[in-house]
């Protein structure tokens, strides 16, 4: 279990972390999600010991490690840009931590081969990092971090430098790996889809603070603030409140609680149809409200640009979120 | 239009090559030509006189002390400049470049002012029977001074480029700073170090001004190859001067060839 207690981090002219309290359960896969500059990477580096907090405590499995160097924390760390040891073969990269610990040669070899099998790099032992693709390098970095059997695995935007397809593959793979290895894992990401996909707990960060932490579904269904709601998925603003575009209900006749709006554009995205609406009471130059409906609904309504529709949010569907 | 640009290109090439030939190629070529004008036998006897052999040995001796010193110091300086969390880095950086900016003759004179018989530390040194100026220590100090920046200057950009993530990764894997330096940082900067060492060697062997001031120029005692060339030239022993020059040029050539062989681009991997 990782406990972060009222951690503050000041840089010269920047307040990166503001009284962060967070508990991360043993064996969980937790995502620190937030926009750039929200402090998520700094928090991860504080947990790793790569940054020293200005105040507050970090407790790993009951031991206060706030003043311990990263070497003594028993953590594995994976960097966004791999931090591969370029002058070493894949085998030597993965073996690094074990060699530092002076493990017997036979044990090191066995362990490295096993880990390379786990991460799908069997047969790449003699290669050098420059001969690997980005995805392969990151899997090598993961094997290297896992070799020392860390109590905690920390991943700093591990898939951020990869293209979309490899990224999606790797996060599915990471989820499976976590289900096998069960090491407490913290993943930093700015990609809400990635967080929702792999994590069993999400902590959303905003301006150096935890905005909300909990299970992905709870955060999605019951966001504590507009920030959390808008960060976890697409939103539309209607009548002063925020709603999910797919929760918007369109009809051709006036109904209780509905707002009149003009259809500006209808976009067919395969199964889904996106309708851009301009509410009648919207001020000039306002952004259109985007509603997401199914193809069947769109065909029933026979919507076209210029049509007048009535749009409403399902009542009671968005507890807790109102316009500021 | 195309004709014109071709003429321009040709003109530029002729200009660049002509410039190099006039300033570098022809003079060095002439030295070699003049050296072997009267046959290899004359050259051999001229570079095997006791004074010449001693000058050759002394030159290598000074380089053998100055180069390792400046290598260790240069890497250390680069580490402080790039990784260190110290104030006044711009000042340190300016100090590292100082030997480039100051004329070697001035370096020699300033060493005399500090370590000479009447210098600032002179009386104390004399009392303890230590002689620095007009002996090997002074020549070594002068050479160390003028060749100080090369390793630091070559290693600094390489350190900046590789960044500190590999070192951080090593730390999270349990490596101490010392282990991280030997196993990660040093292998990563080795080409920069090697290149800096080659330049330092070349500078140490070719140094004239600063060494000239502090050496005393006693043949067979405190005379380096460059000083020997100057003396022979001054004594109208042109053939002897050319022979010694050729020897210097040969050492320089050997160092340069070594550097080309060290060039990382020739290797299959970084």
Automatic annotation (TrEMBL), chain A:
Q: From what superkingdom does this record's organism come?
A: Bacteria
Domain ABC transporter stretches: 2-232
Q: Which UniProt keywords are present, listed alphabetically?
A: ATP-binding, Cell membrane, Membrane, Nucleotide-binding, Sulfate transport, Translocase, Transport
Glycosyltransferase as a keyword of this entry, yes or no, is no
The record's SUPFAM superfamilies line, in alphabetical order, gives:
MOP-like, P-loop containing nucleoside triphosphate hydrolases
Mind telling me which Gene3D superfamilies this protein's record contains?
Answer: P-loop containing nucleotide triphosphate hydrolases
Instruction: Enumerate the InterPro entries for this protein.
Output: AAA+_ATPase, ABC_SmlMolc_Importer, ABC_transporter-like_ATP-bd, ABC_transporter-like_CS, Mo/tungstate-bd_C_term_dom, P-loop_NTPase, Sulph_transpt1, TOBE-like
The UniProt record lists the keyword Membrane: yes
The family database entries (PANTHER family) matched by this protein are listed as: SPERMIDINE/PUTRESCINE IMPORT ATP-BINDING PROTEIN POTA, SPERMIDINE_PUTRESCINE IMPORT ATP-BINDING PROTEIN POTA
| Protein name as annotated | TOBE-like domain-containing protein
Please tell me the species this chain comes from.
Answer: Paraconexibacter antarcticus
UniProtKB/TrEMBL annotation, chain B:
Keywords from UniProt, A to Z, are:
Membrane, Sulfate transport, Transmembrane, Transmembrane helix, Transport
Q: How does it sit in the membrane?
A: Multi-pass membrane protein
Keyword Ribonucleoprotein listed: no
Localization (cell): Membrane
TM ranges: 12-33, 53-82, 94-116, 128-152, 193-219, 239-259
Q: Which InterPro entries match?
A: CysW_permease, MetI-like, MetI-like_sf, Sulph_transpt2
Establish whether keyword rRNA-binding is in the entry.
no
Looking at the record, the residues that make up the ABC transmembrane type-1 domain are 56-259
**Chief location:** membrane
According to the record's subunit comment, the protein's assembly and interactions are: The complex is composed of two ATP-binding proteins (CysA), two transmembrane proteins (CysT and CysW) and a solute-binding protein (CysP).
Q: Which PANTHER family match?
A: SULFATE TRANSPORT SYSTEM PERMEASE PROTEIN, SULFATE TRANSPORT SYSTEM PERMEASE PROTEIN CYSW
Functional description taken from the UniProt entry? Part of the ABC transporter complex CysAWTP (TC 3.A.1.6.1) involved in sulfate/thiosulfate import. Probably responsible for the translocation of the substrate across the membrane.
In its UniProt entry, what is this protein called?
Sulfate ABC transporter permease subunit CysW
């Amino acid at each position: 279990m990782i406990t972060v207690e009222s951690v503050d981090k000041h840089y010269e002219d920047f307040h990166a972390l503001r009284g962060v309290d967070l508990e991360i359960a043993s064996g969980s896969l937790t995502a620190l999600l937030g926009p750039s500059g929200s402090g998520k990477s700094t928090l991860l580096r504080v947990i790793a010991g790569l940054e020293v907090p200005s105040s507050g405590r970090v407790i790993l499995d009951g031991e206060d490690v706030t003043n311990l160097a990263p070497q003594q924390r028993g953590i594995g760390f994976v960097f966004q840009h791999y931090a591969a040891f370029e002058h070493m073969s894949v085998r030597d990269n993965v073996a690094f931590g074990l060699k530092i610990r002076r493990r017997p040669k036979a044990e090191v070899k066995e362990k490295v081969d096993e880990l390379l099998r786990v991460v799908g790099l069997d047969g790449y032992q003699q290669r050098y990092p420059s001969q690997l693709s980005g995805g392969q390098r990151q899997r090598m970095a993961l094997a290297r971090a896992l070799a020392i059997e860390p109590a905690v695995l920390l991943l700093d935007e591990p898939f951020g430098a990869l293209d979309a397809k490899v990224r999606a593959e790797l996060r599915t793979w990471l989820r499976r790996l976590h289900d096998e290895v069960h090491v407490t894992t913290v993943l930093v990401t700015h990609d809400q889809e990635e967080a929702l996909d792999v994590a069993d707990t999400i902590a959303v960060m905003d301006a150096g603070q935890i905005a909300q932490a909990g299970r992905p579904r709870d955060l999605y269904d019951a966001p504590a603030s507009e920030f959390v709601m808008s960060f976890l998925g697409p939103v539309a603003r209607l009548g002063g409140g925020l709603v999910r575009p797919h929760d918007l209900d369109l009809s051709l006749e006036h109904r209780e609680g509905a707002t009149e709006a003009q259809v500006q554009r209808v976009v067919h995205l395969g199964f889904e149809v996106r309708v851009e609406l301009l509410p009648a009471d919207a001020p000039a130059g306002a952004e259109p409200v985007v509603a997401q409906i199914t193809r069947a609904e769109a065909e029933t309504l026979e919507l076209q640009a210029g049509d007048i529709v009535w749009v409403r949010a399902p009542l009671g569907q968005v507890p807790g979120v109102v316009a500021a | 239009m195309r004709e014109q640009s071709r003429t321009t290109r040709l003109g530029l090439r002729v200009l660049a090559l002509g410039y190099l030939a006039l300033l570098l190629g022809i003079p060095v070529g002439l030295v070699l030509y003049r050296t072997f004008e009267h046959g290899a036998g004359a050259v051999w006897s001229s570079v095997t006189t006791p004074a010449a052999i001693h000058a050759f040995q002394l030159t290598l001796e000074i380089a053998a002390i100055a180069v390792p010193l400046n290598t260790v110091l240069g890497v250390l300086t680069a580490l402080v400049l790039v990784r260190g969390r110290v104030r006044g880095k711009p000042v340190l950086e300016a100090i590292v470049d100082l030997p480039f900016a100051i004329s070697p003759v001035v370096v020699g004179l300033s060493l005399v002012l500090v370590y000479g018989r009447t210098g600032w530390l002179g009386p104390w040194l004399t009392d303890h029977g230590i002689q620095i100026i007009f002996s090997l220590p002074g020549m070594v100090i002068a050479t160390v001074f003028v060749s100080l920046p090369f390793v630091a200057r070559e290693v600094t950009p390489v350190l900046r480029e590789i960044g500190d993530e590999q070192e951080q990764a090593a730390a999270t894997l349990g490596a101490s700073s010392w282990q991280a330096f030997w196993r990660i940082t040093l292998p990563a900067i080795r080409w920069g170090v090697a290149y800096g060492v080659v330049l330092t060697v070349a500078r140490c062997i070719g140094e004239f001004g600063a060494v000239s001031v502090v050496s005393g120029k006693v043949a067979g005692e405190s005379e380096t190859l460059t000083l020997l060339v100057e003396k022979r030239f001054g004594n109208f022993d042109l053939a002897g001067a050319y022979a010694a020059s050729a020897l210097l040029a040969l050492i320089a050539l050997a160092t340069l060839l070594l550097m080309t062989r060290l060039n990382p681009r020739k290797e299959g991997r970084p």
